[in-house]
Amino acid sequence: MLNPSAATWTDEFLWSKRRIGDPLADQTIAAILQDNQKGEVDQVFQMLVQNRNFPNPAFDVLPDRLKRIVEDYFAQTRQLPDWADPFRIMVATEVFKQHGPKILLLLLCKSLPLCYTCWRGAKVLYRTGRLRVHNGSLDSFTRRVMETAQFVVNILTLNSFEHDGNAIISIQKVRLIHAVIRYHAQQHRWDVETYGVPINQQDLVGTLLSFGVVIIDGLKQMGIELSPEERDAYLHLWRVVGHLIGVDDDLNSEDEADGRFLMNAILDQQAGRSPDGGREGMELTAACIDLMNSRLSFGPLQRLSPLFVRFFIGDKYADLLEVAKADDEDDSPVIDAIQWLDKRLQGIGDRNLLMGAMGRAFSNQMIDLVMVYHNGAKSEQFYLPSALTDTWGTEQPDFRIPPAQKIEDVIFYLDKIARHLRSQNNPMGLFAAIYKLVTQRVAEGLRLGLFENPVEMEQVDVGFGNRYFEAINRFFDGEKATQPWQVSFDAARTVITTDQYIFSAANAHISFDLPIVVAEVYQGKNIELFKNDFAKMNELFDDMYDQMNDNVGRVFRPFGTLVTYFSDKIKAVERGYMKKGRDLAWEKSRGLHRAKTESERQRLLTELEAESAAMGRKIAHPPIFIRLPLVYIARKEFGTTAHKVDVMLRTALLPTVA
Description:
It is built from 32 helices and two strands. It has helices at residues 11-16, 23-32, 38-50, 64-76, 86-116, 119-129, 133-136, 139-155, 166-186, 192-195, 201-211, 213-221, 228-245, 256-270, 280-294, 304-313, 315-320, 333-347, 352-363, 365-371, 386-391, 407-423, 428-447, 454-476, 483-491, 498-521, 531-542, 545-555, 557-594, 598-620, 624-636, 641-648; strands at residues 374-375, 380-381. Helix 2 packs antiparallel against helix 4, helix 5 (86-116) crosses helix 16 (304-313) and helix 23 (428-447) packs across helix 26. The longest helix is centred in the C-terminal third of the chain and has 38 residues, at 557-594.
C-alpha cells in the first residue's frame, strides 16, 4: 500500500494528475458505447435508478455483451481495500449521527464553494448542471446539490459499507456517471490542454478532501472540536471512499496534516478567475446561497446565507466568488446588529463564538430543507434513515411519497415503501409488497398491448397508486387517513393474520379508492368503454392466487398443508370473495360517474367511505368466535414481519402475463 505524503505533491505532479480520469470506469463506458448504442447507456442508468442491489436479476434483460460488461464492473468495484478498518468506519458514522445537520450545512457553506473557486473544475460542473435554465430556475442545481447531500448521507450511515451496502452502490453509480460526463464532454470539443480531463484525479481528490479535512475544519469553526480518534476515523472513512471511487493511491491519504496541505496546494494552483471571463464558480456559489435563502422563512435572516459562506471559506475565497460582504447598504437592522456584534467578538479574537453558534442553530433547518425535497426528474425523494432522524430530533418520516406521473413511478415507490416498512417490522409492508407485484403485472400488460384503452389504463393505475401514497403520507405525518385506510392502519397495530391485514388494506384500496379513480379518469367520457379493461386488470390479479397461497403457507405451515389438498376449492373461495368486491367497485364507479352535481357526488363519496370502512372492520375485527382462532393462527405464523414481507415480494409462482 502506498503512503502518499506532502513530499510527493509537487506543483508539476499535481498538474500531471489533471490528465488522468478513472481508467476502470472509463473503459466500462467505452465498452458499452463501442457500437454507439446510447440507448444501452440510458437503459443501464434507468436500472441504476430503480435498483439498489447488484448484481441484480434486472440485468438479465440486457444483451449478453452488455450484461457481461456491467456485471464485471460491479464485481470489480465492490471490494473494500484490505486496509479498511470496520471499527474506524463505525466511529466515523457515529460522528455523522451526532453532527450530521452541521455537516450538511458545511457542505453548502464551505465544501462546495471552495470547490467552485477552482475554475477549471467548476467549468464541467456548470456545463453538466445546466444552472439557471428555464428563466432562472434553480431546479437543476438543487438536484445536483441534493444528489451530493444524498451521497454524503449514504456514505456516512451506519453499516453502509457492508457487502453491496448503500455506500458501495452509491460510489459505483457515481463512478459511472463521472465516466459518462468525461466521455461526452470530450466528444464536444472539450479543451483538455486548458482544463485537463473532465473530473480528473486532481478534481476527484479535491472534492474528497472537501468532504473530509475541510468538514473537520468547518466543525472547529462552529466550536465543535472532534477528538483525535474521531478525526482519524472520519478521515479514514473518506480514504476508503477515495479508493472505491477511483482516486489514485498516490493522492489518497488519511493523514490530517497531509490532507490539509494537499487541499491548500490544489487551491493555490487552481483557485482563481477564469481567463475567458466565465463566471461559473460565482454563479454556482450564488445558487448555493439562493438555495439556502429559499428555505429560510424569516426574510431578514436570508441575509445570513452569504455571511455564513464568507465566514466559513474566508474573505480571500469569498471575494474571488463575489460573495456579498458585510455592511451592505440595504442590510436590515437585524443583520446590522449581528455584524456589529461579530466585529466586536472578532476584535477579541473569538470570532467563531457568534457565527459558529448561529451556524449550529441554523443547521437544524437543514433537516427540513432536505426532507421536503423531491427530485421529479428521477422520481426520487431525499432519504434519511430513521436512525438519523430520530437522533437529530426531527419528527419527519424517512421520506415522502410524491405524486406519481407514470406506472414505473408507482412500482418504484411501492418497493421503497415495502422495504422501509419491512425495516420497521411494520405489517403495513405486507400490502405494499403485494401491491408492487400487482402493479408490475399491469405494467407488463400495458407493454404487451393487453388493454383496449392503454392511456386510460395507465391513468387509472397511477391515480390508484397516488390514492395509496396520499394515505401512506398521512400515516407518516401522524394524521388520520380516510376511514377505510385508517381501519387498515389501526389493524396493523393489533394481532391479526397476514391474510387479514392484506385483505383489510385491499378492501380500502379496491372498494373505496378504485371507484373514485375510475370515475375521475372517465369524467366526460363513456365509462362503459373501460369495462373490458377493468375485467382484464382483475384477471391479472386472479392469476396471483397460487403465489399468494404459497406465500401464506410459508408463514403459517398448516395452511400450506391445506393448500396441497384443497388448492382449487380455496382459490374458488378467494376468487368469489374478490369478484364480489370488484363487481361492487365497478357499480360504485358507474354511480360516481353518473353524479350530476357536486353535492350528489359528495353524498355518494360519504356513503362509499362509510361502507368501505365497515367492511374493513369486519375483516380486521370479525365476531369473537372467528377472531379467537385467527389470533391463535396469527401467533403461530412463522418469522418476523420483515421475513413475511420478504416472502410476499417473491415472484416464483407468478404465471407469465399473456
